[in-house]
Specification:
The protein is of the alpha/beta class and 685 residues long. The strands form five sheets. The protein has a five-stranded parallel sheet, with helices on both faces. It has a five-stranded parallel sheet with strand order 13-14-15-12-16. Strands 1-2-4-3 form a four-stranded antiparallel sheet, with helices on one face. α18 links the parallel β14 and β15 (548-553).
Length: 685
């Protein structure tokens, strides 16, 4: 059946789009009646078989008076029209084969990869360690349906041009997400089975200080896209890589620069046979929307958001991993596990699921060690199995008794007890059905004082006392430094601060050096501290009955911080001031440490007394004086000297001598302290 020119054009264009989207060949020439593609010789048979099948799908099996020809590395399609042109005679065209040879079998797939796309996707959606939000699951399931439809329509290029913007913090599953995408693509025969590179490539686009090298990261990204595009020009089941992941965290607030727009256009032009995934950290929604809009000027973008995992999610993850190996945590073990995770997070070197996996493996190993000691084969994990690696300071006595036993701090103890009694009283009255207008007093506090004056110790005890009286659910101490709350990028600070607050729900959030969050109007234009403070104010109000925030730092700096944020001042009714210890209190702290472990004589006691009495007033009163930290350092150096002396002399008993103290005080820290004098000079004539 002869086709008119207008319909011939439609047919040619339809076939062209199909071949281009499937990357079966590269278009060399085309007009209204014919197409010419460059294809690999090894793919000729596959091309012939696929074309015949697709023709039937596109045109409902209707016979056409056209022809497909092959010569060398070229394939062509000619369609006759109402006024046909003379047929083209291909140069040195070999005889056409009516029955193409069977295609070569692909590499043997693993059982998982050989599964149907539906099975693969459902396994991804229920897999561990990936705990995606519902929108990730929806994306996988939607894509599972869309890919076959696009293949039927001959428009797979539309899929590759639908880039992704993933908002996810480092360590929380981006690489795992890319692996799952690659598995799904493999199940649809869009990716070579078991590619050496995993089917994806990850690039971080940095922002160097050198202006001359400013855009080098983007140039690298474009070069990677060009290389991937070229490598994927062959048959789709031979593609080595179908996902290019670009971390644009450093650039997400600069995407509207003309130079960046030009790079994005280049990348978009190349994404005809691979998917581009842009990554930024978890950001505030309005900031993330701005990033998506900037990218959408050039590319089609779907946005996926992975909120940070809270402490409860992390505990559940570890418990689930342990359960898969037959292990179980008792209630004390769960509480200790939570403390362990919080401690891992406190030093700003937490690596998400990798850190949690480390905890899982270490927990199992320690349980095996303890089983060797007892001769049991138990898989029930308690807090004793976790103690060696958690190293949490916890009271063996009643926390209220421990507060009483602290040296000095009379005013601090009184104020803290008043607050706890007031909150507990309000809770009791409410429980009896009275006090309808009685609002729980605000728990948030300000601890001011110099280093080593006991602020962290009192905060830990306060958390345990409030847990004892049912004021707090958990009673842990979550410790952070002020600047830990600040993100590196615009829009990252508020989510990061909120995440720390969520970790402390039911407990105490202790923010040391909190004054570092405050900057004056002159130097705060590019600082995220104020944003962190504003977020804290909202959290303190919205969750005022579920956690306590304690701000700690130098007195003057803390007061300046409160002056700069009126909302915060009104939410912190209690200020506990921690003065420097006196000489007598420092000496008492020292002997409380020594008496627990060592023997000593009168000469040693006299030498210690003389040491503390020798501390000059200027040193004792300066704000940098380290107080109890100085005492602990002295204690450790003294018994270290004693241990060395004993090892050299072979003495049987372990006793501290005045000579050990004399040796320790010669070290720079203590010698320089004792040499400090009053610097004030008289002026006269």
């Amino acid at each position: 059946m002869k086709k008119l020119l207008s319909e011939g054009v439609r047919i040619v264009r339809t076939v062209e789009k199909w071949i281009t989207s499937e990357e079966l060949g590269k278009l060399q020439r085309g007009n209204s009646t014919s197409l010419e593609f460059a294809i690999q010789r090894s793919s000729l048979n596959d091309f012939a078989g696929s074309f015949s099948k697709k023709w039937n799908e596109l045109f409902n099996g209707e016979a056409m008076d056209g022809k497909v020809w092959f010569t060398g590395d070229l394939a062509g399609i000619d369609l006759p029209v109402q006024q046909p042109e003379p047929p083209q005679k291909p140069k040195e065209a070999p005889p056409k084969t009516d029955s193409p040879a069977e295609p070569q079998p692909a590499a043997t797939a693993t059982e998982e990869e050989a599964a149907s796309p539906n099975a693969v996707v459902e396994k991804i959606c229920s897999s561990v360690p990936i705990k995606y939000d519902s929108e990730f699951i929806d994306y996988f399931r939607k894509t599972k349906e869309v890919i076959p439809m696009l293949q039927k329509m001959g428009t797979m290029s539309a899929f590759w041009h639908q880039s992704l913007l993933v908002s996810i913090d480092a360590g929380w599953g981006l690489t795992s997400f890319l692996k799952c995408l690659a598995k799904m693509f493999t199940s649809f025969n869009l990716l070579r089975t078991n590619p050496k590179n995993g089917g994806f490539q990850e690039i971080v686009i940095g922002k160097p200080d050198n202006e001359h090298e400013k855009y080098d990261g983007w140039k690298t990204a474009v070069a990677a896209a060009e290389e991937m595009h070229q490598r994927n020009e062959g048959p789709r089941d031979q593609r080595p890589c179908t996902i290019l992941s670009l971390d644009i965290s450093e650039w997400h607030s600069n995407l509207n620069e003309p130079a960046i727009k030009a790079f994005l256009r280049e990348i978009n032009d190349l994404t005809t046979n691979f998917l581009c995934v842009f990554r930024v950290p978890f950001l505030e929604s309005h900031v993330l929307q701005g990033v998506a809009e900037s990218l959408s000027d050039i590319l089609n973008v779907d946005v996926l958001v992975a909120p940070p995992n809270g402490i409860d999610d992390m505990v559940d993850y570890v418990r689930e991993k342990l359960a898969r190996k037959g292990f179980e945590l008792d209630s004390d073990g769960i509480a200790r596990l939570e403390q362990w995770i919080l401690k891992e997070k406190s030093d700003d070197s937490f690596f998400g699921y990798k850190s949690l996996d480390k905890i899982v493996q270490r927990t199992i190993y320690e349980k095996a060690v303890n089983n060797c000691k007892t001769g049991n084969v138990s898989k029930l994990i308690g807090k004793d199995d976790l103690i060696p690696f958690v190293n949490i300071v916890e009271s063996v006595n009643d926390p209220e008794d421990e507060l009483k036993s602290l040296i000095g701090m009379g005013n601090v103890k009184q104020k803290l007890n008043e607050l706890i009694v007031q909150i507990h009283t309000q809770k009791t009255i409410k429980a009896r059905g009275r006090g309808k207008r009685l609002v729980r007093p605000t728990m948030h506090m300000l601890f001011t004082g110099n280093p080593g004056t006991g602020k962290t110790t009192v905060a830990r005890i306060a958390a345990q006392i409030m847990k004892k009286h049912g004021i707090l659910r958990k009673g842990h101490l979550v410790e952070v430094r002020g600047r830990d709350l600040c993100g590196r990028y615009v829009g990252e600070t508020a989510p990061k601060t909120s995440a720390f607050c969520r970790d402390a729900y039911g407990s105490v959030l202790f923010i040391d050096e909190a004054y570092s969050l405050f900057r004056s109007e002159e130097d705060s234009s590019r600082d995220f501290g104020r944003e962190a403070l504003d977020t804290l104010v909202a959290e303190m109000e919205n969750h005022r009955e579920d956690f306590c925030v304690i701000f700690a730092g130098y007195r003057d700096e803390m007061h300046n911080m409160l002056k700069g944020n009126i909302g915060m001042r009104s939410r912190i009714p209690y200020e506990l001031d921690f003065p420097n210890y006196s000489r007598e209190e420092l000496e008492e702290i020292f002997f409380s440490m020594v008496s627990d472990d060592f023997e000593y004589d009168r000469n040693f006691r006299n030498a210690v007394h003389e040491f503390f009495q020798s501390i000059p007033d200027d040193a004792l009163n300066m704000r940098e004086f380290s107080n109890a930290r100085l005492v602990r350092n002295l204690y450790e150096r003294v018994w270290g000297k004693a241990a060395y002396r004993r090892s050299m002399s072979g003495e049987a008993t372990f006793k501290l001598l005045d000579s050990d103290l004399a040796s320790a005080r010669q070290e720079d820290e203590f010698r320089q302290l004792l040499e400090k004098t009053n610097n004030r000079k008289s002026i006269g004539f």
